[in-house]
Design brief:
The chain has 156 residues and is of the alpha+beta class. It has a single domain, classed as Hypothetical upf0131 protein ytfp. Helix content is 15%, strand content 31%. It comes from Corythaixoides concolor (Grey go-away-bird). This is Gamma-glutamylaminecyclotransferase. One of its GO terms (molecular function) is gamma-glutamylaminecyclotransferase activity.
Length: 156
C-alpha cells in the first residue's frame, strides 16, 4: 500500500471522489486530513477549471487535503487519471497530519503521532508560465467562492 495526498477533485464531496471509492479501480482507504509542510501555489487553471499544485516549493500556501492508503491497482489508475507524467508528476512530499483516522502498523501510527509523513502527491512542473500569476488557494472546493466550477470530463 502507498500513501497518496489528494488536494483537488478527488477529495470527499468533490466531483471526482467517486473514483476513490470505486473498488473496480482498486482500493483507496481514507486515513486522515493533512496539509503540505512546505508552501506551494495551488491554482485553478485552464478552460475546465482544474486545480493544479505547481511544484514551486516555498511559494503559496500550506495546501490542505486528504491522505489515503491505496493499493497498486488504484495507484496505477491515479497515474492514468492524473495524466502522469505529462500533466502531473507523482512525487513524494512531506505532509503534516491534521487529523488521523488511519488504522495501520506501528510505523504508520508513529508517523501520524509525530505529525509528518511522506505521501505521493500529484503536482506539476509542466504548466504555462502565466499560471504563476493566478490566485493561490490554501484548499480546493469546486463550488468555492472563487466561482470556477470544475467541468467533468464527461461534460467536456
Amino acid at each position: 500500500m502507498a500513501r497518496v495526498f489528494v488536494y483537488g477533485t478527488l477529495k470527499k464531496g468533490q466531483p471526482n471522489y467517486k473514483h476513490m471509492i470505486n473498488t473496480a479501480k482498486g482500493l483507496a482507504k481514507f486515513q486522515g486530513r493533512g496539509r503540505t509542510v512546505e508552501k506551494y501555489p495551488l491554482v485553478i487553471a485552464g478552460k475546465y477549471n482544474i486545480p493544479y499544485m505547481l511544484n514551486i516549493p516555498g511559494t503559496g500556501h500550506h495546501v490542505a487535503g486528504e491522505i489515503y492508503s491505496v493499493d497498486d491497482q488504484m495507484l496505477q489508475f491515479l497515474d492514468e487519471f492524473e495524466g502522469c507524467p505529462d500533466m502531473y508528476q507523482r512525487t513524494l512530499m512531506r505532509i503534516e497530519v491534521v487529523e488521523w483516522e488511519g488504522k495501520g502498523g506501528a510505523g504508520e501510527a508513529r508517523a501520524a503521532a509525530e505529525g509528518v509523513m511522506e505521501c505521493f502527491v500529484y503536482s506539476t512542473t509542466t504548466y504555462p508560465p502565466e499560471w504563476v500569476g493566478l490566485p493561490y488557494h490554501d484548499s480546493y472546493d469546486s463550488s468555492g467562492k472563487h466561482g470556477l466550477s470544475y467541468i467533468l470530463r464527461e461534460s467536456r
